[in-house]
């Protein structure tokens, strides 16, 4: 798939700063931010709601059909906590954000997550589930693990992506 601009996936356990980082990247690069969680709600790309986990049940087929169109021209930053459902060909860079348990716990508490959801997400982060899944789903050279504990980390990550994008443009045009 040849695109005039790359697509970037920003993934990680809920609370690691995906949306904030994606917004910062969009600001410094001019790429468009696609918040998949919001897209799922807006376009009804789900099969209902699971009360106990406080989340929608994703309709993967509907989501993939919707995103295929959005991503085909490139220039998108896709922000989602799951990465293995997306075709490898869609992304030129996969960022896995990591946060220490104290930062993660504080962020989830502020969001009002229930205990079960918090426990599950804390365990997921400690066990590096999203990072391992990204490594299993994408070429190793495009998967980058980044710390995301502070605003400084997030700003630094956005700057790194801007540098990466500048190099990508030179190498792909």
From TrEMBL:
One of its GO terms (molecular function) is ATP binding. It catalyses: ATP + H2O = ADP + phosphate + H(+); AMP + ATP = 2 ADP. One of its GO terms (biological process) is rRNA processing. Residues 110-120 are annotated as: LID. Interacts with small ribosomal subunit protein uS11. Not a structural component of 43S pre-ribosomes, but transiently interacts with them by binding to uS11. Residues 35-58 are annotated as: NMPbind. ATP binds at residues 15, 17-20, 111. This is Adenylate kinase isoenzyme 6 homolog. SUPFAM superfamilies: P-loop containing nucleoside triphosphate hydrolases. PANTHER family: ADENYLATE KINASE ISOENZYME 6 (PTHR12595:SF0), POS9-ACTIVATING FACTOR FAP7-RELATED (PTHR12595).
């Amino acid at each position: 798939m040849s695109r005039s601009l790359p697509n970037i996936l920003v993934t990680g356990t809920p609370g690691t700063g995906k949306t904030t980082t994606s917004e910062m990247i969009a600001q410094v690069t001019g790429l468009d931010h696609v918040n998949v969680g919001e897209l799922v709600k807006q376009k009804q790309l789900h099969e209902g709601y699971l009360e106990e986990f406080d989340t929608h049940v994703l309709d993967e087929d509907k989501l993939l059909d919707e995103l295929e169109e959005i991503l085909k021209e490139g220039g998108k930053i896709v922000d989602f906590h799951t990465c293995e459902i997306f075709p490898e060909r869609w992304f030129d860079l996969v960022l896995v954000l990591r946060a220490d348990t104290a930062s993660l716990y504080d962020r989830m508490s502020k969001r009002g997550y229930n205990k079960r959801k918090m426990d599950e997400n804390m365990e997921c982060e400690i066990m590096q589930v999203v990072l391992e899944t990204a490594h299993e789903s994408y070429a190793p050279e495009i998967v980058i693990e980044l710390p995301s504990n502070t605003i400084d980390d997030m700003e630094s990550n956005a700057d790194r992506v801007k540098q990466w994008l500048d190099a990508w443009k030179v190498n792909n045009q």
